[in-house]
From TrEMBL:
UniProt key word Protein transport: no
Protein name (database record): GNAT family N-acetyltransferase
Domain Nudix hydrolase: 234-380
CDD domains (alphabetical): NAT_SF (cd04301)
Domain N-acetyltransferase, first and last residues per copy: 1-149
Pfam families found in the cross-reference section: Acetyltransf_1
Keywords from the UniProt entry: Acyltransferase, Transferase
Top-level division of the source organism's lineage: Bacteria
UniProt KW Acyltransferase keyword: yes
Source organism of the structure: Pseudovibrio brasiliensis
Length: 380
């Protein structure tokens, strides 16, 4: 899954017409549809359009528009009829939801014909109203909507284990493409290193207890999965982070440096689980990871403040475990100490620290959805 290119406009229009015609609508209605509904290069340039390809052949696309501060519109989602039933529509829908959340929208709405409405209902959309279809003999057009706010849980106990016998089918089946993607990444950023990280493939929440099983993968495999729109939807990026709170109650996030794989993004200090987090008994110590990442990025340690609640944030392909740490320092004092720490690092992971006094402060930055939800949870 990739952003569309302007040169793909005709191919996307053809997909739209083929997918719509699959339902056997009246020929005259379909001709009017083909005459009036097209994807243009200007549309691709203006608003996000995701495309799915299979062996370089385009098979589907989705377009998302931002309607208001809180609401995005899924303007269209089409998959070629011969590619139906393979999960491509669900993958595109999740990609569209990711775009909407990156726009800092909490609702995604759409208008669905009667044939597609059960698909959207299956993926959590509910009807708010309907209107007659312009097509003869067709059922009503359903106005549907979904809340995109990541789910936040309080956690009292965490039990994570590494499954040493497990392998990742996604990595096995796409090894050559992953190698090519990695070469592109390191040509742009030679500081990236293909170490071992851990991916979550099975988990549960019950009575504030979080349990999960992880598999060992290469960082290049993780980045390919991320860059291609999370094609294995059963995998999750589980990671830990520390939410620094100042004496005034503000939050302090980090803006990632250009030598990292998330350059320019703003979020709480944290990172992927890796082999350093595995205990001799095979358990995965996510709190050890949280402590290590905090010190590596900011110079602070967990014993320098008051530890608060532990939260789990479910955010599509991401699952963050956040530990709250309140420092008896002002926001500016925290920024000063992080700046001093970074000045003494050869290649600091943070470009700068950022004070967050309200959710509105995030609108100036590129922020992953889980961090937006966490900010709203803690500051609203």
């Amino acid at each position: 899954m990739r952003p569309a290119e302007k040169g793909q406009a005709i191919a996307l229009t053809n997909i739209m017409h083929a997918a719509k015609g699959h339902w056997g609508y009246d020929p005259q209605d379909m001709q009017e549809f083909r005459d009036h509904w097209k994807i243009t290069p200007e549309m691709i340039d203006k608003d996000p359009i995701l495309v799915i390809s299979e062996e370089e052949h385009l098979i589907g696309f989705a377009r998302v528009l931002k309607e208001s501060t809180e609401v995005a519109l899924l303007d269209c989602l089409f998959v070629l009829p011969e590619a139906h039933g393979k999960g491509h529509g669900a993958w595109l829908l999740e990609g569209a939801e990711e775009i909407a959340k990156r726009m800092q929208c909490t609702q995604l709405r759409l208008e669905s014909d009667a044939n597609a409405a059960p698909f959207y209902a299956h993926h959590g959309y509910h009807s708010t109203s309907n209107r007659p279809s312009a097509f003869q003999g067709a059922g009503p057009i359903e106005h549907m909507q979904k809340d995109l706010t990541p789910q936040i849980h309080e956690v009292s106990e965490i039990d994570l284990k590494l499954d040493v016998a497990a392998t990742w089918d996604f990595a096995t089946h796409n090894s050559e493409a992953i190698k090519a993607n990695w070469q592109t990444l390191i040509s742009d950023n030679p500081d990236l290193w293909d170490g071992k990280v851990l991916s979550l493939y099975q988990y549960s929440f019950e009575n504030a207890q979080f349990t999960g099983e992880l598999v060992e993968i290469n960082y290049s495999e993780f980045l390919a999965w991320r860059d291609w729109g999370f094609p294995d939807r059963s995998a999750k990026n589980l990671f830990g982070c520390t939410v620094l709170r100042s004496r005034e109650g503000h939050l302090v996030f980090g803006k990632m440096a250009g030598n990292t794989a998330t350059a320019g993004q703003v979020y709480p200090p944290g990172g992927n689980l890796d082999l350093n987090d595995i205990t001799p008994s095979g358990e995965v110590d996510i709190f050890g990871s949280i402590a290590r990442e905090l010190e590596e990025e900011t110079g602070f340690t967990l014993d320098q403040g008051d530890l608060g609640e532990v939260l789990a944030i479910e955010d599509g392909p991401r699952l963050a475990i956040a530990r709250i740490l309140t420092l008896q320092l002002s926001s500016n004092e925290i920024l000063s100490k992080i700046s001093h720490f970074n000045a003494n690092q050869e290649k600091p992971e943070l470009e700068e620290a950022v004070i967050i006094t309200s959710p509105e402060d995030l609108k100036a930055y590129r922020v992953p959805p889980y961090a937006i939800a966490l900010t709203a949870h803690l500051l609203n």
